[in-house]
């Protein structure tokens, strides 16, 4: 069909209008789709508009966890339940949110070679990490400020992790302490580390976590101050609540255009809602993410940490090799769920070179865009020891509290079992590269 210039202009006007609507602006992914669409071919445009029409006509947001067919069903339910600015914090990537979408797309470029006539009556999805056996290879990645999604926050996540047998990582920027998370989990929780720009503060967080019984410290290295989180900034405009009641003009690592801006509350104001900073001298702290970190810092950390030390955010062979040389015990391949830099590179495509870099010496976990049991299967087949999920457990939390997180975990476990059975693999260790093939281009 020919598009007259007039029709094209009208369509673009319509797309721009859609972009301004709260429905789109509230969802980073939708907003990003729309941005791309403004430059897309007519056929892609048509496909997207059809999809949007369906979305508009359906009002099928789930009202209880048991109604969910897949983990994506929890996203609209969470959007409905969470204040717009807080949902924007959860959804946002950076720039056009292209890397958020890329993380998902990466999995669709890998196909599964299913074997037949294998006895798959018994499926074992348990996995060992550092000699500890977990019910599943699905790990709960660290998420900051989870009380922004539900009053029970990280503690609801910890209880769900306990009831479903998952490993959980607690953010330094969590709204619950490591002691409370471990108590709610009824077992060890790994401590994620943002060391700040003051060594003594990072060191105190490590020592506190070790004392609480955390068996691993996970240093996040992929985030610098001031990442361009446009979806977050847009959602803040939609939120009519009085944000200063909670945020009191304090420091924000994502202050728009002003990295690490300190408001009247300064860093201490920000940290007052983050129990991992309780009792620490924060007078010299200006940044949550230590922008001056380098490999000497890792060396110093290695000498300080007495439990396992992992680095989260490695995406290249070179850095993987350096990490191993520096005595790091494990890696998490991550681009912060597309919230770090807009590389458009999916983590599942970074995974093979990181695995090459470590040469089997340490376990490697991957996160970013994992939404299906088949995604987990593919990551494990590539050689990951485990996979992390970030947003999905927060969607479950925001929508339905602990029951929502449990339902998300149950669905992913069920889907993993299903694909293992279908592909003819009875245990996690049997999921190898032989079960994969790249999609012909
Ligand atoms: C709302 C939100 C908060 C996050 N907070 C942290 C954090 O405090 N520390 C950290 O290392 N990663 C953090 N991440 C990144 C996640 O740990 C994880 O790498 C990412 O969410 C995985 O991608 P996914 O959301 O597509 O599953 C956060 C991600 C989101 C969405």
Account of the 3D structure:
The protein has an eight-stranded parallel beta sheet. It has a two-stranded antiparallel ribbon with strand order 1-12. A two-stranded antiparallel ribbon has the order 2-3. It is α/β, with parallel strands linked by helices and 441 residues long. The protein is built from 19 helices and twelve strands. It has helices at 5-20, 22-25, 28-37, 42-57, 74-81, 84-91, 98-108, 153-164, 178-185, 199-212, 230-238, 244-247, 266-271, 295-304, 317-325, 347-358, 373-382, 391-400, 402-423; strands at 110-112, 127-129, 132-134, 138-140, 169-170, 190-193, 216-220, 308-312, 330-333, 364-367, 386-389, 436-438. It is globular. Helix 15 packs across helix 16 (347-358). It binds flavin mononucleotide. The site of flavin mononucleotide has 24 residues, from helix 6 and strand 11. Residues 89-90, 103, 141-144, 171, 173, 192, 220, 312, 334, 336-337, 339, 367-370, 388-391 line the site of flavin mononucleotide (FMN).
């Amino acid at each position: 069909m020919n598009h007259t210039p007039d029709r094209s202009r009208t369509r673009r006007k319509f797309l721009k209008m859609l972009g301004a609507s709260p429905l789109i602006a509230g969802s980073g992914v939708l907003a990003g789709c729309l941005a791309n669409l403004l430059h897309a071919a007519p056929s892609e445009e048509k496909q997207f508009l059809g999809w949007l029409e369906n979305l508009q006509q359906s009002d099928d947001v789930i009202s209880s966890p048991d109604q969910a067919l897949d983990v994506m069903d929890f996203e609209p339910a969470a959007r409905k339940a969470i204040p717009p600015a807080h949902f924007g914090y959860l959804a946002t990537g950076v720039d056009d949110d292209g890397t958020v979408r890329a993380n998902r797309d990466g999995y669709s470029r890998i196909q599964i070679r299913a074997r037949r006539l294998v006895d798959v009556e018994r499926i074992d999805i348990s996995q060992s990490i550092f000699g500890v056996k977990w019910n599943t290879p699905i790990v709960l990645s660290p998420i900051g400020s989870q009380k922004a999604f539900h009053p029970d926050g990280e503690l609801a996540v910890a209880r769900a992790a306990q009831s479903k047998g998952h490993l959980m990582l607690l953010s330094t920027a969590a709204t619950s302490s490591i002691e409370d998370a471990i108590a709610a989990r009824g077992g060890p929780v790994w401590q994620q580390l943002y060391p700040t720009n003051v060594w003594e503060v990072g060191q105190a967080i490590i020592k506190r976590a070790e004392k609480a019984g955390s068996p691993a410290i996970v240093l996040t290295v992929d985030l610098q101050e001031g990442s361009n989180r446009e979806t977050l900034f847009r959602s803040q405009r939609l939120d009519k609540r009085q944000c200063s009641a909670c945020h009191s003009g304090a420091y924000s690592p994502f202050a728009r255009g002003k990295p690490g801006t300190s408001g009247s509350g300064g860093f201490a104001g920000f940290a007052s809602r983050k129990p991992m900073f309780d009792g620490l001298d924060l007078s010299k702290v200006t940044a949550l993410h230590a922008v001056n970190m380098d490999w000497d810092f890792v060396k110093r950390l290695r000498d300080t940490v007495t439990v396992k030390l992992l680095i989260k955010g490695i995406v290249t062979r070179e850095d993987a090799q350096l990490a191993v040389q520096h005595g790091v015990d494990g890696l998490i391949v991550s681009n912060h769920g597309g919230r770090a830099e807009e590389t458009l590179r999916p983590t599942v495509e970074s995974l093979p070179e990181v695995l090459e870099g470590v040469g089997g010496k340490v376990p490697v976990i991957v996160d970013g865009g994992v939404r299906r049991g088949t995604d987990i299967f593919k990551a494990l087949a590539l050689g990951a020891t485990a996979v992390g999920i970030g947003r999905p457990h927060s969607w479950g939390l925001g929508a339905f509290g602990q029951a929502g997180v449990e339902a998300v975990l149950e669905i992913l476990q069920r889907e993993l079992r299903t694909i293992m059975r279908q592909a003819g693999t009875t245990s996690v260790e049997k999921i190898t590269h032989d079960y994969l093939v790249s999609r012909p281009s």
